[in-house]
């Protein structure tokens, strides 16, 4: 009997200077490196929102990455909450 690996799904809202600093593209690159599925998008309030899904250790790693972001980002805080959904790739939503 084969068991499907457990996946964790979280929703993140990243606050700070996170738009205009390649946060979304950098997060997509990091997600692909970690084998994470989901999406990322800018919100009108200046935050970045993402839904990430994958193996628990990989999800933990991308949450850790989101707390610092790419080089020019200045992350103030990250809201993290459980989410639901099924994803088969990681994409930037516009």
Automatic annotation (TrEMBL):
Its EC number is 3.6.1.7. Residues 9-94 form the Acylphosphatase-like domain. The keyword Transport does not apply. The active site is at 24, 42. InterPro entries: Acylphosphatase, Acylphosphatase-like_dom, Acylphosphatase-like_dom_sf, Acylphosphatase_CS. Transmembrane segments: none annotated. GO terms for molecular function: acylphosphatase activity. It holds the Pfam family Acylphosphatase. It is an enzyme of class 3 (hydrolase). Keywords: Hydrolase. The keyword Transit peptide does not apply. It comes from the Bacteria. It catalyses: an acyl phosphate + H2O = a carboxylate + phosphate + H(+). PANTHER family: ACYLPHOSPHATASE. Belongs to the acylphosphatase family. This is Acylphosphatase. It comes from Ferrigenium kumadai.
